[in-house]
Structure formats: structure tokens, C-alpha cells
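In full, the data.
>
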Amino acid sequence: MPDKLHKTKGIVLRTVKYGETSVIVTIFTELFGVQSYLVNGVRTSTKKGTGKASLFQPTAILDMVVYHSELKQLQRIKEFRWGYLYKHILSDVRKNAVALFMVELLTKCLKQPEEHSDLFHFAEDAFMHLDESGETVAANFPLYFALHLPVFFGFRVNDNYSGMNSILDLQEGSFVQQVPSHPYFIEDKQAHITSQLLKTQQPAELDAIKLNHDFRRNLLFAYEKYYSLHIHDFGTMRTLLVLREILS
């Protein structure tokens, strides 16, 4: 029985060259969650072929018609085109660094190939907002994305910040009154800004949060620790080092 055809949107997470002209692409799809696709003939040296390969850059949002079989680890794509054409993300160095950080974070969190449409819509919306954003919003975007993504994986930071509960225990994911017995916590301005970021509903609101580069960087490293405490085998983020250089 042939595999069924489905229309789905997708966000490209990773592309690996395969053979002379093909690629294997990891795509976070609206219908099936994270999936791997073999795409033939997109790396030919003709002008037409080069154009096709550019669609499989990480962060690309695509409209696709795909063959899907639950029994296969490697799927195939029948048709693909831009689902959203970025104005800045692929050409602006800073926005590209932020977008690749978001892609790496998504990739590390998405372990199973299962439908996750709420998360897909959040991620798609986030990439589109980043593309359109001004400088302050773009600079704060990694913090916003890192704090709001855990909602979809069941380990969101509980925003119970107050004058009394002013220390964020990264292990518990909650604000507490006293310094924990372990080293995984943030306090003072870092804890207060985290609470502000958790209250942010729309990326445009990030414009009101003024931070310097060092402060952002230190906060990002704290959030990386938070993820590593809550996701098995999370490791460290390669894009964080790039982001650190670009945000300086």
C-alpha cells in the first residue's frame, strides 16, 4: 500500500548532505512533529537546483506535501515551497544567530516524532515575530523564547515572584524565600527580570525591557542550566557561544 499524501507546514531544523545531490532534512512539522525527509536532486549545480537547496536552511518555514508512513524513519516530500519568506532572518547576522539558537533549543527538546501543533504554532509565530522585530526585541528574544518554550514540555517556571519569593530555584522551577542548598539559583535583578519575561505575552512587549549585553548573556547561561536540569541529556548549547559573541 503506498504511503498517504498529506499537506503540512514545517520548520527546518537541520540539513545534512547525502550523496551527490541530495539532503536529509530534519523538519518540525505541524502534523507529525519532528520528522526526517530524504530530498533528492536539490544540490545540483544548475541555477534551478541551487534555489531549491536554499529552502532547506535551518529556520525556513515551508508549505509541503509529504508522503507519510508511521513505519518509516525516513519520509519523502512530494512538493515544497516557502510558507513564509523572511525579510531579515537569513541575511541579518544578529537575527540569524537568535533564530539558530531557537532552532537548537527546539531540536534538543523535541525527542519524539509526535504531533505537537500548539508548539508548532508558537514556534512559527516566534520566528515570524523575530523577523519583523526591532533591535531591543530581537536582543531579548532568546530570553523570551527560552522561558516560554517549557510550557509545551511541562516544566515551565512558576511565576510566583514577590518581595518575599525573590530567589529563583532553577531545580524546582519556582521562586523561593531562601537561598537553596544547591548552586542552581538566580536572585536579585536576574530573578526580577525573569519574572517580567514570564509575564510577557507578546514579543512586542520585550521592547520595554532594557538590559545590557552582559546581563542578557548571564541570564541565558542560567536558562541553559535550567534546561539541563529538566531535560535528560540536554548537554550544552553550541549556538549560545555564537550568540554571546554577537550580543557583545
Q: What stands out?
A: The radius of gyration is 19 Å. Strands lie at 4-18, 22-29, 33-39, 61-68, 74-84, 167-169, 174-176, 185-186. The chain has two domains: 1-85, 88-248.
